[in-house]
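Q: Predict the assembly, please.
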Amino acid sequence: MSLTNEEVKKIAHLARLRVNEDDLPTYAGNLSGILALVEQMNNVDTQGIVPMAHPQDASQRLRDDVVSENDQRERFQAIAPQTEAGLYLVPKVIE
Amino acid sequence: MHNKTIAEISAGLKAGKFSSEELTQDLLARIDRIDGKLNSFVTVTAEQAQAAARAADERIKANKATPLTGVPIAHKDIFCTEGVKTSCGSKMLDNFIAPYNATVVERMHAAGAVMLGKTNMDEFAMGSSNETSFYGAVKNPWDLERVPGGSSGGSAAAIAARLVPGATGTDTGGSIRQPAALCGVTGLKPTYGRVSRYGMIAFASSLDQGGPFARTAEDCALLLNAMSGFDGRDSTSIDKPVPDYTATLKDSIAGLKIGLPKEYFSEGLDAGMAQAVEQAIDVYKSMGCEIKEISLPNTHLSVPAYYVVAPAECSSNLSRFDGVRYGYRCENPSDLTDLYERSRGEGFGSEVKRRIMIGTYALSAGYYDAYYLKAQQIRRLISDDFTQAFADVDVIMGPTSPTTAFKLGEKTDDPVSMYLSDIYTIAANLAGLPGMSIPAGFSNGLPVGLQLIGNYFDEGGLLAAAHQYQQQTDWHTHTPQGFA
Amino acid sequence: MEWESVIGLEIHAQLATSSKIFSGASTAYGAVPNTQACAVDLGMPGVLPVLNQKAVLMAAKFGIAVEAEIARRSVFARKNYFYPDLPKGYQISQFELPVVGKGKLDVMLEDGSTKTIGITRAHLEEDAGKSLHEDFHGMTGIDLNRAGTPLLEIVSEPDIRSAKEAVAYMKKIHSMVRYLEICDGNMQEGSFRCDANVSVRPKGQKEFGTRAEIKNLNSFRFVERAINHEIERQIDLIEGGDKVVQETRLYDSDKGETRSMRSKEEANDYRYFPDPDLLPLEITEEMLESVRATMPELPDGKRQRFVSEYDLNEYDATVLTASRELADFYEATLRFSDADPKLVANWVMGEFSAALNNDAIEIADSPVNPEMLGGMLTRITDNTISGKIAKEVFEAMWAGEGAADDIIEKKGLKQITDSGAIEAMIDEIIANNPQQLEQFRAGKEKLFGFFVGQAMKASGGKANPAQVNDILKRKLKG
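A: Predicted assembly structure:
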């Protein structure tokens, strides 16, 4: 699969990454090259093979319903880019 | 003093031959003097290290020491360290002072190890040469014009240059083993789930595993003892007792069945590498091991499958870096989308962006089955290859990487050729198996790594095989010129 | 043309756990912003989710209650999208393999008929935080206290055909989750809310029309109004020659209409994939056994039992079992009284429920408890007071004046049952009203009521009405 500049732009937006127009051809080339590598998988028939999402063939461990965390807002917000009245601030959200 | 192994330091501290404070100061001075050439540290925590060393000396005096008490170590900058910058090699986290410790950091700290600083790495562990770091490339101590490997290149280079006797790393597709090989040190990637991933900044969650670097297998055993074990904060960490990995180092390996996958000795493998690996195998033969040729027929598919699975997971894992709660935020965002796109566009380097885009594409509507699901199926095939192989052999051996350290800049413009340098290491991550790389000679003056892959939770077996090889050879004691 | 609407609901029930679904932070409502958002809830680097067992058991409990298949193995997936109230850039939810599979629920409609609504699935997921739009220099504030609160999303089949049916179904689920004690059902606090998928089609057509999804409806009234408005809007569109667009809409309760959500207009590509931080969730037979052991009697079973055990009619039994609290109150009152179950039912559904409504309070906060009400009803049964006086006693109990017996005593409300005294009183009334007596005897039987009224008035309402009747009948005949 060879990606066009337009497709790269679309993917970049889906991933919320600003890519300069000038860099689009390079990304398109690189990404197409990687996809070509990846597509070697298509030479293998995998019909009926159970997909493996995880190296462990185990089930999930569960925790008890206990409140174990206390308020650390001050510590956490000390490293935040912008806060006010204990809230994280972002440009206006339009619903 | 800087030439001592962890085992030697531990014994020396216990016997009172030197103090942790002296040793720590010595190494800090050495880092200060030498690391300018290597760039292996992102942050040196001199003050904390000295305080920790003094506390360790007290603890030793009080007879409450563990084997790691007072031993200087370094953490890859992917592990969160409370109150200390944790950058993950990225501009995105250049201002991130972690408010908590990773479990690995916590455990090493509890054992009394003295952290000298945080080591340089490929940005978000994405790279095989350490050239994608926001803080610049790390240089290989064996040849300053060459790469140290990646992504844990800082840890490997620092150990090779005798700046620190042990360090942590993480391995998602070879990021411990490959730099260990390229820098001529010993590194171990444990079984997936053996070491907690809590506080270790995620690249690809189903592949990432933390592990130790040191000069010897024995030292790796000491570090692994402290690092591993169940952690209630990581659902994928395994609740299985941790054996004393140092206790089994001398277990006889006579009769050990070693499998050599023919796919690991095919075209693309550098001739000098092949020769060194064959000589290492001969050493094992001489120790009474049984050598068998085996086949891992789907090896050639490991890189393609990996470059779907790892980017897919990373595209989602790295979504949290959005400029809202921590990390880099662009100047004067015009609206919410602008905040996201510019913070991420400016905060991430191009390799990270490439991988996020590949992963986003592979998971997107209409492509999921062809890429992601297909890769998961291939992953099963690769894992099954190993299951079959381990029915016949105890350990699999081969080269860690197809070539020795390559030149800085040599592969930066060609991501695919860079990706292929992990061709022998990636499969173990896809399967979740433990693997090691140990120094096994030189090719054109550059270190060659021998890779050992073990069955699930057989870190003890791998360490014993590595340790006994290191009793027969002295490759692991070689020091790069100028760093003795 | 006659139109038929097709509706499916996605109900979000916040599970009543103490801690969050994947972290140890508290879920208590109303905390100071971001004080209940721990490193995991904030999506800090390197932190990992660990699933709350109680949330799993609660989901299983719901599954058993709606006769659904509980998946022995289910999978958590990541739903990826960027939004400031979603700290990780993905929501941990379930996609392909939910914990609760196909189930069903019988809903009683207004005309008394029963309709079975299919439940497609129910899955566990984490809630997002909140965006606060008050003006912070033109910026939005984000509070992540709610991020990571466990939700059970209950998805219905498109079996619902009107707004009223939708409300009946939602009320039944609301009652169910409260019976099961897995959700507090508090709609003001957002613990129970729903999204409605609405489409219309010409009656008789098999294919579904294009649907719109109305988000975040947090009251039964809004559900009804929003759906009705949406149905009208869609019919108007189609009849006007336009097309319904598949989109997400928001109900504006002030204007009583739905509007398109601009922020969600962009086609979403959620890139679901199994969460690699969480292994498959296994529900063992032991876990299911432990859930079955704590299974309460459910509304339908309770209703049937009320009919057979207490001889109530279907209507009374349905009203009384609509909420577990009311049903429990009814049965406790029965235990504290010698009164007939029907009398108790009338009082619980009548005076008691009306008083709760008037004061807008919950049963838990009622000033009259089952013992008090039961005690009072016993006094009706043993003829100490009449039903009419009982209303006065009830009001006094509600006002906090004490138990029924004390009030009866203090206010001298005890019924007069001494037939000699009643007779003397009636003799006097008859003597004082010769004209009325004459007319009565001449055939104006309506005047019987006049004499009853006089007798009750003279006794201050305390004469036993049955005795008054008997004696009057005898005396008036002459």
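Strands of chain A lie at 83-84, 87-91. The two ends of chain A are 36 Å apart (CA to CA).
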